[in-house]
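INFO worker-7 received task bundle
INFO bundle size: 2
INFO processing item 0
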Amino acid sequence: MFFDRPDSGELAVLVHLEFSQLESSEDPREFEELVLAAGGDPVAFITGKRAMPTAKYFVGTGKLEEIRETVEQEGAQLVIFDHNLSPSQERNIEAYLGCRVLDRTGLILDIFAQRARTHEGKLQVELAQLRHMSTRLIRGWTHLERQKGGIGLRGPGETQLESDRRMLRERIQYIERRLDKVRKTRAEGRRSRSRASVPTVSLVGYTNAGKSTLFNRLADSDVFAANQLFATLDPTMRRIEVEDVGPVVLADTVGFISHLPHRLVEAFRATLEEAATADLLLHVVDASEMGRDEQIAHVDEVLEEIKANELPTLMVFNKIDLLGHEEGRIDRDEHGVPWRVWVSAVTGAGIGQLAAALRERLGTGVISARLELEPSQGRLRAELHNRGVVSNEEYLDNGNVSLEVKISTVNLAQMRAHDAEADDAFTAAGHPKPKPTLY
């Protein structure tokens, strides 16, 4: 049978099993938070243990009967499994229980669909949903008693199914083309920032680790942040100033979660590429979470999948206020380089130390210079302002302009390579071009 999705008010029975032969299982607390984030109303939580899932119903017949009785007693409209079900398992369970069944991937997709706000985010969610739906399309047409193959057995059900599959394929191809344009646009933006030597810092981390709150604190922004899973979904970018470094692009990305559905990783590749191409990752961790080590491991898995696991990373242990700590601190490695900062994005504790760590990790060398430019050098003056390296400007009596400049060695080397006028100006200011090293 086919179950239409109601608009609201779903009473849900939650099912969470532990399997002794599987390496890891989901956190039941997180599962319940996901259901609440989707707008569900949990009325019962059924748990159990098995060696392995069954092929037909995923659970044993005894547990399945327990779920059916609970559904009838509670008047539930939906049963949600904290596991990924195959299409046949989902259909078999629905037929036995007589109500809708949703697995973990479907639940997360539902949350993403609710939270997407931008056109790009909606396209990415729709793509993931269509790919998920394509494996379950048959469930919508079983009322026509469709049977595969055989002369005289091809009926309207199969014709309708083929039509739906064709429309799905066409829609998927259309969205993929649109997202390809998004990727190209983002790639061009990254090339522009690279040409201007503007570093990018991407916030990554487990969902609800406080990334958006930290983003707002650093960027003085107003991105929506709440104590719930996937409070924000669409990527946000802001330009901030880091002392002794200059302008930096700060990017807030979608939160990760244990066993993040592969379809979502694929659909959100355009967004996650901002993390994969960043100059520095800020891996935000909920320091108050008992399972923070497992959450770090789950984030590392996704970073490896998008080939961002080798990027320079600064760990940010957030929510130290929940641990009773009023002050932040910087932890350094054996070389004295900051590798972890303890902060509270809510109270502001440790934000100064985080800014200092960013200066050290991004400021690979900064030159301070005072340049005196003639009126004819307006193009060079505009370029310096465009790169955001001018800290003070003063007009002189002789008609020239005096600029106080703080520029990274990388930025300066790039300017000198393409602009002889810039090379001459910095040389006159007492910063000659370094001589090439001979080997």
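INFO item 0 finished
INFO processing item 1
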Amino acid sequence: MFTDVLAGWRRPGAPLAGALAGAVREAVLDGRLRVGDRLPSERRLAAELGVSRGTVVAALSSLRDEGWLVTGHGSGSRVRLPRDLGERYAPLSVDGRGSLDLRRAVPAAPRAIVTEAVTRALGRSARLLLESGEPGAGLPELRELIALRHTAEGLATRPEQILVTSGARAALALLVAHLAPRRTVVESPGFFDTLATLRRSGTRTVPVRVTTRGWDTGRLAAAFREAAGGVALLVPDFQNPTGALMDPRVRREVAELAVRHGVTVIADETMRDIDLRDHPVPEPRIGRAVTIGSMSKTVWGGLRVGWIRGPAALVRELLLDPVSGLHTPPPLEQLVACEVLPLLDRLLDQRRAELRRQRDHLASALSGDDGWTFSLPQGGLALWLRLNGVTGETVARRAAEAGLSLLPGTAFSPDGTLADWLRVPYTAPVETLDRAVEHLRRAYRS
């Protein structure tokens, strides 16, 4: 009975047609109604739900206009997902009813690409399922695909230089555990998860200031000298949260400092493909750096596939580490990644266009206000606002009371500074960004 699928669909005070349409949407998203399911006839549906046929017609018409249903002549209505919902960058939870959560700048899955990739991966999984599934360096096919992408961008790479991990955080945790640095050069501001990983490792952090204009080169030299024999963890491509892009001269300087002071540079490249310039061209990588990448910002965080690219000797050493297997994704996920990677450039074109449009929309909505200043980043996922006369924690707290969750600058600080800053991601749809700006202005003015 359809009534079982929509149990409790009536909402006090809500028009019946709107409540019914909303219940069908929720049932589709929860999986109680599957894409392709056929709905009962309007007459039968009205009888089962105890409402007029006019109510059902109005509800189904609304769902049809929004793309939740498709109706064929003589074949009734079938469930589908609206195209813009299945392909947009922002997760559905970002713009939930009554609240907006912009603390994490992460994508939803490109539904069509991922579901088709899963189907294809299962279709050719026979040999994989006949093997042990034990952790290792990664599926040979996946390592080769990742190596080919690096080589195509000008960094000649062999598959044996790639170690597949369950995301970028797993890659970082494995490297830090293996290298066990006494001191680590970090960026200020830096990504909060990265800073937390380093704090738990017990390493002493040596901050280098980064602004939207770039890295403090004077401080870089002093920090590398202080961290001699240790590690430097940098995000040279569209740094999170500033969006800064390290220029070639500074990259060469970093490489020279690393050699001079015996520092291992780990370059986090999770944002490298979020290049929003009109004609994206990958920047040259930092010489001799160990790089970390993942599919979390370009494809989906739920596809836990990342990698380390470094000397083959380092990859062999990491594989001998007992904790290495804990950071390896399941082989079926790796097989899905093998299906997705050849489609990545097409997906990037779509996602860059969407993010570019949302970035420009948010910048326009925030411009001309004396409450803050910001620079338009060339890539990345957020605007880095400097507030005038009030702290980021104060604005974030007031905004949260109104239903908008944001992270203040102190969350990105390795030493408790950056109190005057606030990160505002532009990963949400423009309608959601407009609501966020309204909340932000009220929180600041209050």
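INFO item 1 finished
INFO post-check item 1: The mean pLDDT is 93.
INFO post-check item 1: The CA atoms of residues 345 and 401 lie 40 Å apart.
INFO worker-7 idle
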